[in-house]
């Protein structure tokens, strides 16, 4: 039945496609991206939020074109090509790229995805650490699991990971905002700056950007292939609504069909799906 198999897409759709069209002109930074990739979406949301000029360039990372390998040695997206250097330089690894963009913005647009207080910054980084080490691998274990018992086990693992993230968000709220001795709503808002969309009235944080793409794929791909429902508690639901509606996030989202088609390979755990899928199957850390 291979003719009926769905494959990954090679062009964005919906709002993401409109954004691509607005970013076709040369800039100092070119983002090498793939429309379905959540690691790319992280970087893309950050570029939008931090208001850094960029050109979007779609590549097929499974074909490993030479221009991608020049900027990203393992041939993984995202990659950045930095044209302000002669010859141009490259940068890869979504988390490293996020830090780089944060540094660029500090000197240019003055926008930031982090709070200013060192302890508050550390709490956001704890959230990011949990996302990278636990939550993202759990997503793939769950999606790639084929037997029912493994799907139940890894579904629970992913759900507990989300609950642990919510607990880390709550801790930042308690320690920084509630414990900050704010006299009124204005001061509370100032203390909460950089702590993310978990807080009512908050704005995007590094951790929202780090996990947002997988929350989005949980809402469509995991729902479709694994019957998964995201936690519905008041705060959790409000956070997701704010995340999906955030302009910097929304404009990087394609339509649901693109994700369902592109992730069928993972859901069926087809051989040679990707380096990420192989690492999950081998019980190794993600590339
Ligand atoms: N650790 C990398 C992971 C990036 C990654 O795995 N990207 C996937 C697309 S979602 C890719 O390029 N896959 C190509 C392959 O598996 O060969 C990052 O954070 O940037």
From TrEMBL:
It comes from the Eukaryota. Residues 117-275 form the GST C-terminal domain. PROSITE patterns: GST_CTER (PS50405), GST_NTER (PS50404). SUPFAM superfamilies: GST C-terminal domain-like, Thioredoxin-like. InterPro entries: Glutathione-S-Trfase_C-like (IPR010987), Glutathione-S-Trfase_C_sf (IPR036282), Glutathione_S-Trfase (IPR040079), Glutathione_S-Trfase_N (IPR004045), GST_Omega/HSP26 (IPR050983), Thioredoxin-like_sf (IPR036249). One of its GO terms (cellular component) is cytoplasm. Residues 27-109 form the GST N-terminal domain. PANTHER family: GLUTATHIONE S-TRANSFERASE OMEGA, PTHR43968. This is Thioredoxin-like protein. It comes from Mycena metata.
């Amino acid at each position: 039945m291979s003719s009926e198999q769905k494959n990954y897409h090679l062009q964005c759709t919906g709002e993401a496609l409109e954004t691509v069209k607005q970013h076709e002109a040369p800039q100092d930074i070119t983002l090498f991206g793939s429309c379905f990739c959540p690691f790319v979406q992280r970087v893309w949301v950050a570029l939008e939020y931090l208001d850094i000029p960029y050109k979007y360039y779609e590549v097929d990372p499974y074909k490993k074109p030479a221009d991608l390998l020049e900027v990203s040695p393992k041939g993984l997206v995202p990659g950045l090509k930095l044209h302000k250097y002669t010859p141009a330089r490259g940068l890869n690894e979504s988390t490293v790229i996020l830090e780089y963009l944060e540094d660029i913005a500090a000197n240019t647009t003055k926008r930031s995805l982090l709070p200013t207080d060192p302890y508050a910054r550390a709490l956001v980084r704890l959230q990011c650490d949990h996302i990278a080490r636990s939550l993202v691998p759990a997503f793939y274990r769950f999606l790639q699991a084929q037997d029912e018992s493994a799907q139940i086990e890894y579904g629970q693992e992913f759900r507990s990971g989300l609950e642990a993230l919510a607990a880390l968000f709550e801790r930042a709220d308690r320690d920084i905002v509630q414990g900050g001795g704010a006299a009124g709503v204005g001061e509370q808002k100032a203390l909460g700056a950089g702590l993310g969309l978990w807080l009512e009235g908050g704005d995007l944080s590094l951790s929202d950007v780090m996990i947002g793409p997988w929350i989005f794929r949980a809402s469509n791909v995991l729902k479709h292939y694994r019957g998964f429902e995201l936690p519905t508690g008041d705060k959790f639901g409000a956070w997701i609504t704010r995340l999906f509606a955030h302009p910097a996030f929304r404009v990087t989202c394609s339509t649901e069909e693109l994700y369902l088609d592109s992730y069928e390979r993972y859901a069926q755990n087809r051989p040679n799906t990707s380096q990420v899928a192989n690492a999950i199957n081998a019980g190794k850390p993600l590339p």
